What does this fold into?
Amino acid sequence: MLGSLDGSAPRELIAGSTNARFVSPGYILFGRGSDLFAWQFDERKLQLVGSPQPVPVGKTDFLALRAYFGFSVTSSGTLVYAPADYRSRRSELRLVGRDGRLLKIVGDADRQYYPRLSPDGKRIVSVAGGEFLGRSNLWITEVEDARRTQLSQAEEVFISPVWTPDSQAVIVGCSRTGRELCVKSLNDGTDFRVVYSTRAYAAPLSISADGRTLLFEENFVGTDVDLQTLDLSTPGKEAIRVVVKDPGPQSGVTSPDGRWLVFTSSFGSTRGLYVQPMSGSSRRWTVWNRSAYNPRWTKGGRELVFATEEGKVMSARVVNDSPFTTAEPEVLFELPERPEDALPIFEDVTADGERILLNV
It folds into this structure.
């Protein structure tokens, strides 16, 4: 769309495009499918000139679910882009100790995302075989012998599975559009059952210890992100927002006692780690004032473990809950790679905090 700051109505400029960027001396770069195009633009007449020309960089990363095309360009015309296979790398699941020493490799390498340990520590659920935020399958891997079981019958968009407290079912973002939350039992042979539908991208984050409350992320394309809770014991009940229109929470987890929510967010110029009451109170406390990934509660809610942008796994001991206070975070070990949103490397930790799951 092309709009004016004088308030006049905008008009469509390029149909079927994403992530349009103006580049001097007079071009608009945009994505269409997995291809990048440049179209000459007359700034004086505010009109396109000629026809779009492909930029010879090959296929480029495109997140259809979020209508996001993986490129950016500087004011001087330098182009940065992610190739189409950026999110399709193969990785392996590793269990390590608190010092980072390898304890076990669980299964073979695969294209796998969102791995989470079951509460009893015996299984790992993951989205595997496809691409990040693309069509894949849902798998269960036994920690002891790496035996794998496919939960899904066909490829769909599966997002961020989480376990129920009894380790007998998972809740996952599902469907071909990623706009439903579904529960899948491991034992009764029933198909995925929809528990919540939305017009937005939806991703489960955690389930309360009593199994009643689901925390999930909801994100309409081009808008801020809400963290919401859903009462699983009352079908049809409206979701409740606990973090509203945040500049960008990426992950969040409810504490074992259900009182606290820890989440990453971008209240400032960089993403930090915060804790606030699950009651929805606007009061919040900073645990880490720089970028963080995948915070996890351990030791009955008395410890937070997370990864930093620099690739360090950190431990923050909870020393008080009135008001909420943590000790200065301490480094446990360094990751073999620096984390990123599509592959945070640090994924999960057992309830006792002694074994840490990496995806690398």
Remarks:
- The radius of gyration is 22 Å.
- The chain has a mean pLDDT of 89.
- The chain has two domains: 18-81, 91-359.
- DSSP finds no helices and 34 strands in the chain.
